[in-house]
Amino acid sequence: MTEPRYDVIAIGNAIVDVMAACQDELIEELGLSKGGMTLVDSARAQELYDAMGPAREISGGSAANTLAGLSALGAQCAFIGQVAADQLGEVFAHDIRAVGIDFDTPPRDREPPTARCLIFVTPDAQRTMNTFLGASQYLPPVALDAEAVAAAKVLYLEGYLWDPEEPRAAMRRAIEAARAAGRKVAFTLSEVFVIERHGDDFRALIEDGLIDILFANHLELAALTGESDFEAGIAALSPKVPVLVVTRSAEGAVAVAGGARAEVPAEPIDKVVDTTGAGDLFAAGFLYGHVNGEPLERCLRRGAIAACEIISHYGARPEADLRALMAEKLG
Amino acid sequence: MTEPRYDVIAIGNAIVDVMAACQDELIEELGLSKGGMTLVDSARAQELYDAMGPAREISGGSAANTLAGLSALGAQCAFIGQVAADQLGEVFAHDIRAVGIDFDTPPRDREPPTARCLIFVTPDAQRTMNTFLGASQYLPPVALDAEAVAAAKVLYLEGYLWDPEEPRAAMRRAIEAARAAGRKVAFTLSEVFVIERHGDDFRALIEDGLIDILFANHLELAALTGESDFEAGIAALSPKVPVLVVTRSAEGAVAVAGGARAEVPAEPIDKVVDTTGAGDLFAAGFLYGHVNGEPLERCLRRGAIAACEIISHYGARPEADLRALMAEKLG
């Protein structure tokens, strides 16, 4: 086994976030699912964009956000995801490469355009996401760079991308490539609706021992295990995955690994501006500690600190110097 | 003379700002003119973008920013400017319409793409702008809606747009249309380099009595008048324009109108994040007061408050509720 070239390689949706502040009334008026992620088609995306206030565009995508955090902390990362050959595709590619992440998936020179996520941020800092997947869902299995996957300590996959057929096939191939090379597979469940659609697949992956590190929030834990009680969910799932990490918003996070358990509270914060990316950055902080062999609690603290930074401003990509921030907080 | 339909109609560059934080070292390395605005061609724009950190895209353009501020305060506004039929053009059009501004210039269905301004923001909050004018410089004189110009109390023009030939012709036509309808013409000098190139044109417009309201900062005042002393510059220029407004960054602003003079300090602010748009929003606040017949000092206070809001965050479009902010500060 050669020395890994990457700490983490991820396959994810290549999305540009289009973010605007709004009042709760607009969420109701538009019939949006507050706090959730809804897939929308082109016509609905246009309708929502027309109703949206002045926006800002910031690169997003769940796994891509996680890599941006990892890279900011000093990890070597690579991303696989599909953009179209258009301006938003250029924006996504620029922003991910600008933080030092290798991104070599060629843009797709056909319709539909690059994915975008229309995000309405209410005064309570909650984000309501409406994703037009566009080119992202056409990531072909051939885009999978098995050599690169084999060259990373951890393969990181987002549940969101399990929905479209081609990327799902790419992810299955990636899991095989990672296991064949003796690498670890990390998976984030992403959203309750994804579990409702693909929970059987996810449970099978877990039962087959193909997931080494599983990220979930408390709602996803309940949806996957069928246990509405948090502790019952942890008890049901933790024996089946080597590392289980469950976040629960303002109540902090729990990790269980090899029988050991650690817990951290959420980091104190003056003002939550926009919760977009909180889970993605929690995963970034945790994974950074994990690939560096740090104790479970320190991994969780890193997750909490990264999540805290991301919710202090608009957008799901870090703005502060995460490395300096962690050095200051963790010593 | 029919009742004006608009308070302010503006002709300006239709630009999307691409903004990233950077250290001073990068400004030097790239040979940028710190704090200034430099026009760049497509190749240089690509070179700078490649060197830029992860960015966010926020609609900009000097006169468009001013209108966004005016509209947020409750003024009726219209914008004339040229985007291309591409994604950034859609972003610009969405953002300006989303704040209630009429924008009917059809997108241009050819190369070059929509204008963008690559803005490097240093830790001192100074912005260094590099503008690829793209489609914006091809605003054709026929795009000028003379009927709409005649229907606005004030025609607002940015000096930046005096540089390319077609928009310059459009602006000259607009000035004629405004004067013929008995409307006022407001002009912002924009940048010292614009004055270096077109100072003779600007001085002729002023001598011919075609400018009713002139906006400048202290550097532009010196460049236009040839007077390095601030008071000498004011004394030289103020008799030639009915309303002269000169900002001087942290030292506040001065206005002279019909022999009367008013002065305000800059608004106190905790932390300046990004100075992009400070002058544009000063003009917005001032013009709002002016079209509503407010006293000179109150117009200046509005300018200072709007400028203070814009420098407290990234981007040159208001984020706070400017109307509420002014009600709170001005009573």
Relative strand content of chain A: 15-25%
Helix residue percentage of chain A = 25-40%
CATH classification, class level of chain A: Alpha Beta
The multimeric state of the shown protein is: homodimer
Number of individual domains of chain A: 1
* Mean of all residue-level pLDDT scores of chain A: 96
The helix/strand series of chain A, from N terminus to C terminus, equals EEHEHEHEHEEEHEHEHEHHEEEHHH
Structural class per helix/strand content of chain A? Answer: alpha/beta
Give the strand order of the largest sheet of chain A, numbering strands 1, 2, ... along the chain.
6-5-1-9-10-11-12-13-14
Fold-level CATH name of chain A: UDP-N-acetylmuramoyl-L-alanine:D-glutamate ligase
Summed up:
2 copies of one chain form a homodimer. Chain A has 331 residues and is an alpha/beta fold.
Chart the SSEs and their pairings:
The structure is a homodimer of 331-residue chains.
Chain A: E1 6-11, E2 15-21, H1 24-29, E3 37-39, H2 42-51, E4 56-59, H3 62-73, E5 77-80, H4 87-98, E6 102-103, E7 115-121, E8 127-132, H5 146-150, E9 152-158, H6 165-180, E10 184-188, H7 192-207, E11 213-217, H8 218-225, H9 230-237, E12 243-247, E13 253-257, E14 260-264, H10 278-291, H11 296-310, H12 322-330
Parallel strand pairs in A: 1-5, 1-9, 2-7, 3-8, 5-6, 9-10, 10-11, 11-12
Antiparallel strand pairs in A: 2-4, 7-8, 12-13, 13-14
Helix pairs in contact in A: 3-10, 7-8, 8-9, 10-11, 11-12
